[in-house]
Write a structure and sequence with these properties.
The chain is mostly helical. The longest helix is centred in the last third of the chain and has 28 residues, at 168-195. The protein folds into two domains: 1-104, Orthogonal Bundle (Rna Polymerase Sigma Factor, Chain: A), CATH 1.10.1740; 106-196, Winged helix-like DNA-binding domain superfamily/Winged helix DNA-binding domain (Arc Repressor Mutant, subunit A, Orthogonal Bundle), CATH 1.10.10.10. Helices cover 75% and strands 0% of the residues.
Length: 196
């Protein structure tokens, strides 16, 4: 299995298709954190996220076995696209679909709490996370989405572009404008505090 860890995604897929089940395990372990984080960020429900996460990899395995998967060196984008489609299907089944339901990711910071040494540090961290969340929510939706996918899901701009159906330049531009807008918001907030 150690040899498999160094293999590319495409090599692992090819190895799995030849019958090496360990290769699939390596692929799943390689991306499970990013895929699960993305799902949880969108659905905001751990139980539903668990179900969609399992369904994502089941569908991926079925697709790989059927021979439909195209070896383009974009396994993470492909698996995230499966997850994205399953999230939309889930919302449609529950008749909760809407632009805000799919793109609103307010509760993500609540799931990223880390263990800290003291209650005081925990309180400071929560206040900081709430402030960051509020600042991000002040951005235009497209910019906020890119920031959340980049920071909370640790996706590359290439993956973000594929997931949001825009060019990589558009994704990079949205991030650039998000940073500019966040700086302006912070400057305005600091100015208003000083005037008070």
């Amino acid at each position: 299995m150690r040899q498999n860890i160094k293999c590319s995604d495409n090599e692992l897929v090819a190895s799995y298709l030849k019958g090496n089940v360990e290769s699939l395990e390596v692929l799943i372990n390689r991306y499970k954190g990013k895929v699960y984080s993305y799902i949880l960020m969108v659905v905001k429900d751990a139980t539903l996220a668990d179900d969609i996460f399992q369904d994502t990899f089941i569908k991926a395995i079925q697709t790989l076995r059927s021979g439909v998967y195209k070896d383009e060196g974009k396994f993470l984008q492909w698996i995230n696209r499966i997850a994205h489609n399953l999230i939309i299907d889930s919302y449609r089944k529950n008749q909760r679909i809407g632009v805000d339901a799919v793109t609103d990711m307010d509760k993500m910071s609540d799931t990223t709490m880390f263990a800290v040494e003291s209650i005081e540090q925990t309180m400071i961290q929560r206040q900081d996370e709430e402030r960051v969340k509020k600042l991000i929510n002040m951005l235009p939706p497209e910019q906020g989405e890119v920031v959340k996918l980049r920071i909370y899901c640790d996706l590359s701009f290439k993956d973000i572009a594929a997931l949001t159906n825009v060019s990589i330049n558009t994704a990079l531009g949205r991030m650039r404008y998000a940073i500019i807008n966040l700086r302006k918001i912070l400057e305005e907030q600091n100015a208003s505090v000083l005037e008070s």
